[in-house]
Amino acid sequence: MPSDQDQTVPPEPSSVLSAASPIPSQPPVVPKRHHLWLIVLGLWFIVLLGAGLFYISSLSRKLVVEEKPSLPNVERIKNAGKIIIATDATYPPMEFVDDNQMMAGYDIDLGNKIAEKLGVKAEFSSILFDDIFNSLNRREADIILSSVTINEERKQTVDFSIPYLNAGQVIITLETENSIKSENDLSAKRIAVQKGTTSEDEALKAAPPDQVLLFDDFIGATDALIKGEADAIITDLTNAKGIVDSNQELKIAGEPFTEEEYGVVFRKNEDDLIAEINTALNSLRQQGYLVLLKQKWLE
């Protein structure tokens, strides 16, 4: 029997590698930079694509707007079914109240025809000429149609249509008056006019201010002339014809001494409405309707 010293113990398997044993190596984790660049480029592509699509969409909307311009004032009138027209109905034969208490005259017929072209009805509002422009700017009317002469001073606060009638200033006197034949004969005369009109402007050119008598309308001016309180009236030829036709004791002295054109009046910058009414006026002129109005009311 072998002794204890002679017995040998078999070595136990070691689970720990010795210092001399080589350590198995793994490849190091290296960031894949080319993947990051692909992600960055992809994001930039998406941003650029989105910006391009937004630009195309905006351009498309802009083109649609340009193809279909907004017509806010025309649409407002059409939605209301009427156009409100301010006029001073004391100015025959252009605008006046007839024996049936209805408004009549050249401008009334023209206003009704313009409304017809717009597909709406005309509603007339009688306003003294002295306040008629303020009334328009207070939005109490859509337009003014009241024998308004187009001039540069008025263009500072309102806009005009194309002219629809050419009229000039004339002088009215008593039938028996023979000393007044032109505006040059008015320097020492009393001149009756409606205030706020181009007739007032012409009177102030012909005579001193204290000889220019101002009235709210030409009815008062006519009464003053007939009563001997004035020596003459200055007014447009169109109005003069109506005054003389109604008062046989009066006459038109001489020829028109100015060139004046009437236009429809608008608030500033209502370009869509101006264009629409200009189209209507051109159509009525081509159809001969303006000639018919002149024959009906002025000849």
TrEMBL record:
Q: Which organism is it from?
A: Candidatus Gottesmanbacteria bacterium GW2011_GWA2_43_14
- What family does this belong to? Belongs to the bacterial solute-binding protein 3 family.
| Limits of the Solute-binding protein family 3/N-terminal domain | 82-299
Pinpoint the Ionotropic glutamate receptor C-terminal domain residues.
83-299
Give the region (Disordered) as residue ranges. Answer: 1-23
Q: Where in the cell is it found?
A: Cell envelope
Q: What is the protein's given name?
A: Amino acid ABC transporter substrate-binding protein, polar amino acid transport system substrate-binding protein
Q: What is the lineage of its organism?
A: Bacteria, Candidatus Gottesmaniibacteriota
Q: Which InterPro entries match?
A: Iontro_rcpt_C (IPR001320), SBP_3_CS (IPR018313), Solute-binding_3/MltF_N (IPR001638)
Gene Ontology terms: cellular component:
cell envelope; membrane
> What Pfam families has UniProt attached to this entry?
SBP_bac_3 (PF00497)
**Membrane listed as a keyword:** yes
UniProt keyword list: Membrane, Signal, Transmembrane, Transmembrane helix
Instruction: Provide a Gene Ontology MF annotation, just one.
Output: ligand-gated monoatomic ion channel activity
TM regions (residue ranges): 36-56
Q: Does the keyword Transmembrane apply?
A: yes
